Amino acid sequence: MTALATPPVTGRTAGSSPHLLRWLLRLHRPALLAWTVFALVLGGLLLWLGGPLTDAAVEGWKQYHACEAGGCVYDPSAVGRYKDWYTYTTIAVLAVPFLVAAWSGATLTSRELEHGTAQLAWTQSVSPARWLAAKLALPAVLVTVGSAVLVGLHHWAWSTGQGRLDSAKSWYDIGTYAANGPATAALTLAALVIGALIGLLKRNSLASLVGSLFATAFLWSAMAIATPYLWPTVTKLSSLKNTVPQGSGIVVDQGLVTSTGAHIANQQCGSTTDAGCQAVYAKLGAVGYYNDYHPQSHYWPLQLTATAIILAVTALLTLAAFRLLQRQTGPSAPARKAAAV
Fold this sequence. Notes:
The protein has a 4-stranded antiparallel sheet. It has helices at residues 17-27, 29-70, 77-108, 110-115, 117-122, 128-159, 174-180, 182-202, 205-226, 275-284, 299-329, 333-340, and strands spanning 234-238, 250-258, 263-265, 286-294. It is an alpha+beta fold. The radius of gyration is 27 Å and the shape is flat. A hairpin with a 4-residue loop joins strand 2 and strand 3. Helix 2 (29-70) packs antiparallel against helix 3 (77-108), helix 2 (29-70) packs parallel to helix 6 (128-159) and helix 6 (128-159) runs antiparallel to helix 8 (182-202).
């Protein structure tokens, strides 16, 4: 691996913390303004969604049920508007980690290494390690706080429709589950570190942007696949008189239970009221359904376990970024320290 050039230090005062903070704010001012505007607009939409839009949709459903028997006319626009904006805001919240990954990969470390401004910063009594720490610290605070607020507002907006809207999303809907929980806020922080690490590896803005998006998508997908297995499931047995196994939530496995207690997965036919299904079940020796799933009471254990795993991965990625930078810059830290003295 080619070591990055680290010119000798020319002064001490430029590396002071206030100067470094002002430099970072000036360098990333457009991104800071864009993030602030995005968070404020999306936060306002979520407040609108959980307040006036939900109330209007609830009234629309009341009118619909009142008209079921009387044949009157009702206006479905409020219900449709709520469903549309719920979808839009959910997608926006889920997009936050990918937006952060794209920005971090394209600008946080790669652009400065590509243009040589990182090496210039190291001449101002700022060591490479301190430079990277400063590059990560302020954005980490901003994206963590911002994403946590947006996730919290989405959870609140969703909860205001529970038990009031017939069309409200269930807690285990994949988009709702992800946008409602702290795991998405943790993933946003991980995306920031992923972008910085890939920026150090690639030193090219476009390549780092693409790599950061793919790496974040991989982590998101891996956690989505692993989530059902992060906590012990509940098993519910039900009668074959039902058309499907009973129990709603995140399903891990379901199927038939035989007279010997064995489980046969994915052999559902329908209710035993159907003669054909009754014959199929008799041939298999089935006496009921089983459903291994996570009920709503498992929501927080699953979310918090996933969050802890993502934060652990983030810590490892952060350590890898500092180790990589140390290898790239070579054994020049003692010389810079001596020059600063």
